[in-house]
Specification:
The structure holds 2 protein chains of 2 kinds.
Chain A lengths: L1 H9 L2 H6 L16 H5 L9 H9 L3 E7 L7 H9 L5 E10 L2 E9 L2 E6 L6 H4 L1 H13 L7
Parallel strand pairs in A: 1-4
Antiparallel strand pairs in A: 2-3, 3-4
Chain B lengths: L1 H6 L14 E9 L4 E8 L10 E5 L8 H8 L3 E3 L6 E3 L9 E6 L20 H18 L7 E7 L2 H16 L8 E8 L5 H14 L5 H10 L9 H14 L3 E2 L2 E5 L2
Parallel strand pairs in B: 3-6, 3-7, 7-8
Antiparallel strand pairs in B: 1-2, 2-6, 4-5, 9-10
The chains are: A alpha+beta, B alpha/beta.
Amino acid sequence: CTENYAEKYYNRADVQKAMHANTTGISYSWTACSDILLKNWKDSDDSMLPIYKKLMAAGLRIWVFSGDTDSVVPVTATRFSLSHLNLKIKTPWYPWYSGSQVGGWTEVYDGLTFATVRGAGHEVPLFQPRRAFILFQSFLAGKELPKN
Amino acid sequence: TKEQEFDRIISLPGQPPVTFSQFSGYVTVNENHGRALFYWLTEATTQPEKKPLVLWLNGGPGCSSVAYGASEEIGPFRINKTGSSLYLNKYSWNKVANILFLESPAGVGFSYTNTSSDLKDSGDKRTAQDALIFLIRWMSRFPQYKYRDFYISGESYAGHYGPQLAQAIVNYNKKFPHPIINLKGIIVGNAVTDNKYDGIGTVTYWWSHSMISDNTYKKIMHSCNFTSENSSKQCDNAVTYAVSHEFGQIDQYSIYTPSC
């Protein structure tokens, strides 16, 4: 429900002034999502998998994570899609830890790391902020998620 | 730069004291159509000059990074219920990186276009191209971030935005021996990846998490091909039945959370 709070805050004139926002006087209120863009979206590739292959070939670090209580783009969807990259496993599936609790499960492939985040919905850092932060720290450091 | 200082946020209304700098404003990405993208940079809480730059993109398509990424998820501030004040996020990602929230494409949040038809023919390719132009021009305004380790992050439909922008940067960088956008990697969550396999995996999740009956699962798997843009009536009916009669009043984005 917190986007309702954002709708209140970012439509305040003093907030917009402080942020140097809406300087041209946009003819509609600030909203969290634009219905007109969503309804009229024109081009959308069927699959990102070919691009992932190119990015891996370019040597980029690629991490894909998934909150396991989301049913809109759920963990099985991501796993099923990534499985079609047919990547070689570097570090087999294992539970990673956040403090003394399992933060989720992960598998490191040659060129891509996949991790689940236990108890998180679509917006992972909203539902599991600490686990998301550990995940982000590990990504930046180029390290595998903690095993204990 | 002078432009950079113009974008400095002195303080946001209702904001608690903070130790980091923040900047926000517009970068024009298309002069002919009048498209301008809005950004909000929250620098790292300590030694920002030594930390990487991370771009956050939200999904939708059409949803705001300021609304979701910054204010609900990884940003330093949370908004209270009445929208009157802000409080700190203990796990803000700007503790370890400089976080750049981008409202993309034009028409999202504070980003705008002076050509109304842009709102009706927006898509993946233009979004990636505009975001690349944004980055190049933004780095002219913030030259201290040129050559800095740079990462792209995001969620949901940013599963398209992120890889597509990364590919545009990789292609752009080929022209230069020492490119200013020092892209190192991408990280995406609950990301839209592949229409067909995502679709099959989604219905499997519904079934394996007991959100739908065996009967409905079989009907959907039998009648939906998950590839064609024009779905069949049988497929639509089966999915509609699941959503209307079997899901219940749940938050589909977090199935064990009461709906808002």
